[in-house]
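Researcher: Next entry in the queue.
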Amino acid sequence: MRASKNILFILLLGSLTFSACDNLIRFSSEKYSCEPRRIPLYEVSIGNLSQGKSAIIQLSSRQITGEIISLSEEKIMISADGMEITTNRLTGTVRIKAGNNYEKIDCVVDNFRM
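Model: Structure for this entry, 114 residues:
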């Protein structure tokens, strides 16, 4: 009887320990693949999801690096080469403002966590 209680306690403790491992993420990245329209934005890649870190923006003719200005559970705001890019992490919508041009693009989000 005592042995079965110990086994039950160990199984319960083990399941709680492993279920908490979602918070132990060593690496995560997000990639937004877009179909460009007026503004030729093809992809936004973010390797380090931290404020002040860089993001890679692929345009039709060049690749530029931007800085993550703010980061929340819902949005990422990036400043790059005179452009303001806001990604909605929940829907995949990317809003980009370049000079006097403003565009909202629906993108496919690829999240990777390890």
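Model: Residues 60 and 93 are 19 Å apart (CA to CA).
Researcher: Noted, moving on.
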